Amino acid sequence: MTGPGEEADMAEARPRFESSDMNVRAVAITALALLAFLALAPILLAVLYSSATGDVDRRLTIRPPQPELQLSPPADLAALRAAERQRLESYGWVDRGKGIVHIPIEQAMQAVARQGIPDFQRPPP
């Protein structure tokens, strides 16, 4: 059995909280109001702006092209590489009006090695 003095000591030992820290009722009311707003807002907008959804015709008016399937990837890659190789190893016009041509890559690398690149910083001697 506990005496009257011991009960007072036990009451002081229990944790106590301030009632002004948080108002549970206000939090619950705010949460319910927010949920009600989120539930009713789409319905209210649909009713108020019902004419906005009916003015769009969503039928497909154009027919998209059929996909082009790659029938032979190795052959396509070989053709691409051959075209690249032919361009790198030949002479031709890039822009005839401006007088710009392309030359074989080996010849271009040799010319750059001989002459350098204009406005390119030279290494120190």
Give the helices and strands, then pairings.
Blueprint (H helix, E strand, L loop, with lengths): L3 H10 L10 H25 L1 H4 L19 H16 L3 E4 L4 E3 L2 H11 L10
Antiparallel strand pairs: 1-2
Structure explained in plain terms:
The protein is mainly alpha-helical and 125 residues long. It has helices spanning 4-13, 24-48, 50-53, 73-88, 105-115, and strands at 92-95, 100-102. The chain has a two-stranded antiparallel sheet with strand order 1-2. A hairpin with a 4-residue loop joins strand 1 and strand 2. 0% of the residues are buried. The mean pLDDT is 84.
List keywords for this structure.
53% helix; 5 helices; 6% strand
Question: Can you describe this structure in just a few lines?
Answer:
With 125 residues, this protein is mainly α. It is built from five helices and two strands.
Number of helical elements: 5
In which range does the helix fraction lie? Answer: 40-55%
Strands, total number: 2
Report the portion of residues in β strands: 5-15%
Rg on CA atoms, Å: 41 Å
Could you state the order of secondary-structure elements as H and E? HHHHEEH
Mean pLDDT: 84
Structural class, by secondary structure, is mainly alpha
Given as residue ranges, the uncertain stretches (5+ residues, pLDDT < 50) are none
